[in-house]
Amino acid sequence: MNEAPQITTVDEACTAISSWFGWKNNLVGSQIALPFAVPQAIETVNRRLGRLWLEDPQARGGINIFDSQDTLVSPHRYQARPDGIVPMIWENQGVWGCGFRPDMSAQLWVTGDWPDDQSDTHTWRSTHDVVDTAVIFVMLANAIWASADCEMDEEDEKPAEANRLLWTFAPWAGFSGFWTNNDRTLIRMHAGIWLGRHCAPVTRLISGNCGC
Questions:
Q1: pTM here?
Q2: Taking a C-beta distance cutoff of 8 angstroms, is the pair 132, 14 a contact?
């Protein structure tokens, strides 16, 4: 088997997710028409998987890749706040959020319990990171909860066969990354808390709790 390549871009994350779910059709979204620019990462997701932002579950195959856990807001619903920040991601309980400012390109802005030295405040603040980091993390994590079968798994150790690193750039301390195996039939996140399986072929995803 070919060795699974490590993800370095949003486009590569979209490719990995499409391959995981076996999506072969064109999933390009409709044109983003806003009075302000959106980051290239969002343009890329819309070009690769934007059709999955449609509200009709049948039209998107019943897959909630953008809100199975945390919500990657559809760019067609973006609204700029009075301070110029555009929220684009919300944690499933509203514990943290991510956004951007159109005049600052791809710089990531956050609110709430994001892992920085101001995690106890709900004011929006800039980071040294880019929106790509948050977008890739949420899409890969959501793939776990969007799988056909997802349940708790109390094992702390990742399966020995999950020996190929996919992506490891999330900002949480101790985050060990997303891992897969040579056959790309398993994806594991952090320190095994969730276990998901596809029905056919037999595949599984394992995730952990990193404050998400």
A1: 0.87
A2: no
Q: Distance (Å, rounded) from C-alpha 58 to C-alpha 211?
A: 31
Task: Give the start-to-end residue ranges of the domains of the chain.
Answer: 10-207
Q: On the CB side of 24, how many CA atoms lie within 13 Å of its CA?
A: 0
Burial of 109 (0-12, 13-18, 19+ CB in 10 A): buried
- Write the burial class of residue 130 (CB in 10 Å: 0-12 exposed, 13-18 middle, 19+ buried): middle
Instruction: Specify whether the CB–CB gap between 132 and 8 falls below 8 A.
Output: no
Torsional sign, CA 47, 52, 58, 61: positive
Q: What CA–CA distances, in Å, run from 68 to 5, 47, 113, 140?
A: 25, 20, 20, 11
pLDDT tens per residue, range 54-83 = 766 666 666 778 988 899 999 999 999 999
